[in-house]
């Protein structure tokens, strides 16, 4: 049995040696072929810069920004005044001609001559009782809700 095992190991050794020799020879032949073609190998092309990219969009100048802000503010004022005009008309139609809106919200919008009952009635005409959240109804939101709905402000 030992003889047989020794013969197998010897055969494997010879096979490994022959395979190694063949592979080394193939690599040697391939290397010689590459060296023979060295004159045919072209060098890498020289460096060429990438073409210029499209320019970035220009950032608006301060003057352009200021003009846009002024236009936005102008449109806001027009919307605000239109909204207030609709509320004023609605309040007058509801019998509260003495309603006056304060843009800084510091003064009372109703006449100081109103009684507590008249103030409550005017406040109801102005803001209504619209509910809140999912129960909100612009139809119940008084003159302010009607004006807001008419101008399409909000949801």
Give the DSSP E fraction (strand runs of 2 or more residues).
under 5%
Rg from Cα: 46 Å
Distance between the termini: 95 Å
- Could you give a short account of the major beta sheet? none
Order of helices and strands: HHHH
Structure, described:
By secondary structure, the chain is mainly alpha-helical. The chain has 2 domains: 1-37; 71-151, no CATH class. Helix content is 57%, strand content 0%. The protein contains 4 helices and no strands. It has helices spanning 2-36, 62-93, 116-127, 142-151. The chain is elongated, with a radius of gyration of 46 Å. It starts with a helix and ends with a helix.
Question: In a few lines, what is going on in this structure?
Answer:
This protein is an all-alpha fold and 155 residues long. It has helices at residues 2-36, 62-93, 116-127, 142-151. The protein is elongated.
Question: Which helices and strands, and how do they pair?
Answer:
Layout: H1 2-36, H2 62-93, H3 116-127, H4 142-151
Helix pairs in contact: 2-4, 3-4
Overview features:
single chain; 155 residues; mainly alpha; 2 domains; 57% helix
């Amino acid at each position: 049995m030992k003889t047989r095992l020794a013969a197998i190991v010897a055969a494997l050794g010879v096979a490994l040696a022959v395979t190694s020799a063949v592979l080394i020879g193939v690599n040697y032949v391939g290397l010689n072929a590459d060296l023979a073609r060295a004159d045919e190998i072209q060098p890498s092309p020289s460096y060429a810069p990438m073409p210029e990219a499209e320019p970035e969009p220009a950032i608006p100048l301060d003057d352009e920004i200021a003009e846009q802000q002024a236009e936005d503010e102008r449109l806001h004022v027009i919307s605000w005044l239109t909204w207030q005009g609709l509320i004023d008309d609605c309040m007058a139609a509801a019998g509260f001609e003495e309603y006056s809106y304060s843009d800084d919200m510091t003064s009372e919008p109703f006449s100081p001559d109103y009684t507590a009952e008249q103030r409550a009635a005017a406040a109801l005409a102005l803001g209504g009782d619209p509910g809140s959240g999912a129960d909100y109804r612009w139809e119940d939101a008084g003159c302010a809700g009607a004006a807001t709905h008419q101008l399409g402000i909000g949801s």
